[in-house]
Amino acid sequence: MAKVELRQVTKSFGETEVIPTLDLMIEDKEFVVLVGPSGCGKTTTLRMVAGLEDATAGTILIGDRDVTTLRSGLRNCAMVFQNYALYPHMTVRENMTYGLKVRKTPPEKVDELVTEATRILGLSDYLERRPRQLSGGQQQRVAIGRAIVREPDVFLFDEPLSNLDAKLRVEMRTEIKRLHRRLQNTVVYVTHDQVEAMTLADRVVVMNSGRIEQVASPIELYEKPANTFVAAFIGAPSMNFLPAEVIEVDGGPGLKLVDGTELSLDDAKADAVSRATGRKVTLGIRPEHIEGGNQGSATITFAPQAIEPLGPHTLLIGVVNDAPFTAQVDAHFPAEPEQLCAVTCDMSKAHLFDIETGAAL
User: What count of other Cβ atoms lies within 10 Å of the Cβ of residue 99?
Assistant: First the structure.
């Protein structure tokens, strides 16, 4: 396997620049997920690594090889597509061996590779079936198996689970993660699903408008987002954002919301704004860091417009100071639509952002 490096890579389609300037290092054997909303440039980045799109400028390295101008077949990357891209007239065996035969791999080596890949993926009983005789999950396993037998330097996945139902997506996530642990390969994986990104990745690359907003481990993205874009994108339900002003509360720094509600800050957050009295900031608080009831010095009162019971907990969804607001409370918390209720924020888990730039403070 091999590391992947993009140095000062840009991409334009005509006069439209979709990747301004991108620098990224993916280590050998690392599982890296590119995530972001539609149109953020993640698939274009993957296709440039694969050689399916030419970089407008910059350098792409796989291992120690400069592959920037190499055609895709010479890069030794294996790509798994969203739509499986299987040959419908070929059997599972034929689909998996086609590329090997084109490369004139010895027949005994072909048999060895296919036997091992089908054993790993649980496809041994399906080798003589055609794609139309397989479920979506089985077809995706065939597509992954076809990639495995090539013994590539890098595996590239382009939203491979988006056509599967919810249950199959969970199962295939487990399969892909288990496969990576077993094969110890380098993986670059593209998705718009932040749950996939968080559960699969060693590191996550959050992209927006062709730029990298943050590269970090899943838990670091969740606990220490670099800005409001990352904070909003990572986590479900999304983080709440409330405009606030830094004031003194009980002799120390605190926050005042637009409606006059005052919230105390814990020591760590107080240090960040200790000399910023009067500064306008954005308070970020995740729904799961909010309790039902008046529990202390960080209480917000609002009238939920909708109540969504989800079994282990309930979501109260409404508006606070014209900003969308969601609280995740105990399943038995007494609340009624359009009726005022109090919830308490865990300010040790709160985030503060610059109101102008969105950068974390």
Answer: 15
DSSP 360: B
What are the residues whose beta carbons fall under 8 Å from the beta carbon of 2, sequence distance 6 or more?
28, 62, 63, 64, 153, 154, 186
Q: Residue range 233-237: average pLDDT?
A: 93
Report percent pLDDT > 90 for the chain: 76
Within 10 angstroms of residue 27's Cβ, the number of other Cβ atoms is 14
CATH code for the part of the protein at 4-233: 3.40.50.300
What mean pLDDT comes out for the span 108-132?
91
Domain boundaries, the chain: 4-233, 240-354
Preceding peptide of 237 cis, ω within 30°: yes
* 88 C-beta neighbours (distance < 10 Å), count: 8
Q: Which two tokens stand for residue 62?
A: 């796989």
End-to-end CA distance of the chain: 39
240-354 has the same fold as 4-233:
no
Distance CA 139, CA 333 (A): 45
CATH class of 240-354: mainly beta
Contacts of 267 (CB under 8 A, 6+ apart): none
Q: If you compute the radius of gyration of the chain from its CA atoms, what whole number of angstroms results? A: 25
CA distances from 149 to 36, 90, 119, 137 (A): 30, 17, 12, 19
| Mean pLDDT, residues 71-92 | 91
For residue 2, is pLDDT > 90? Answer: no
Residue spans of alpha helices (H) in the chain: 42-50, 92-102, 107-121, 136-149, 166-183, 194-200, 218-223, 228-233, 267-272
pLDDT of residue 1 exceeding 70: no
State residue 115's pLDDT score: 92
